[in-house]
Predict the structure.
Amino acid sequence: MKDARLEKLARLMLTHSLDVQPGAYFRIDASTTAKPLVKALLEEAARIGAFATVQLEDEEIRRLLADRLDPEDGGASEAFLHTAAAWEKRRWEDLTANLAIRAPENDRELSDVAPGKTRMLAAGMREVQDIIVNARRWLLFYWPTRGQAQKAGMSYDRFFDYVMDVCTIDYARLHEAEKKLAVLMERTDRVEIRGPGTDLSFSIREIPVVCSHGLRNLPDGEVYTAPVRDSVNGTVSYNVPSNYWGRDFSDVRFRFESGRIVEATCAGDNEALNRILDADEGARYVGEFSFGTNPLILEPFGSTLFDEKIAGSFHFTPGAAYERAFNGNRSSIHWDLVCIQRPGYGGGEILFDGRLIRKDGLFVAEGLEGLNPDAFLAGSH
């Protein structure tokens, strides 16, 4: 029996998120466990009159492929990655969009892969990722798995329902509310963020602002820009744990001088943390500053795709800037680290040019109240 929610989700993905047109060629890059959604997508593509190429993947196979690389093999692995990247670039001459469907059962699957191999893979595929992210339409979605349900502290059925709900909110209404924040950000020079362990200042002057409302991620809900690259000073402390390169990091804290992370600590492996930040020169500069705005996502469970959308949060991202909000920073990494500022997480304030905009996770500036969860949800009825 078909699940009508998957048909609704497939239609949202292809018509709203990717704007797939009749006759278009696009790629579905999906985990094997997400086959029910892939089937719904192929049916929707047929309805539109578009054509999909499907690439099915498996977490363990991805780990084995990454572990096969060897930075010390005299350049053979680098030559292979160069060739593989060339294959992919030729493929993308004809494809208009990419739909990536991950199904993380074990987010530590890559933890046994040596950091040097992970860096090599990221660097080798950087040009391809730049094409997909900056020159094509793309969408990232996490198929609900039992592993993710366990992390979220829910039964699988309840987690499946949760994912369907948070991914299919009224994005048109969300966009209308987000645009008001974007207009204010476009007029802003100086941003100050204060909270437990955080005293940060930077400029966003003349950096474009982007509203995210289901066009790149599902679930979605954020308004982002980037700091002027060398303007960041002070400290930021993140209170949401994050998994990156197959390792968990918590209580991450950065100290900035003239835009650069000069000190980085965490509750666990500081050496591993700094290896990520030493991936390349751009990894110690920030490529994104964003507000989370999804009214149904309130608590973290260690999945960045969800956690960065938490209402009352912000993320401040070391690594590459998006072309749509470009501050000049390029890197092979883009690590969305999140801080929640609602009272249960310690509170905090965000000021624009000295004016209080958000306090303890709620927008207090006139005209922005519609982004607060209670107000948004009340308007849905």
Observations:
- The chain has a mean pLDDT of 93.
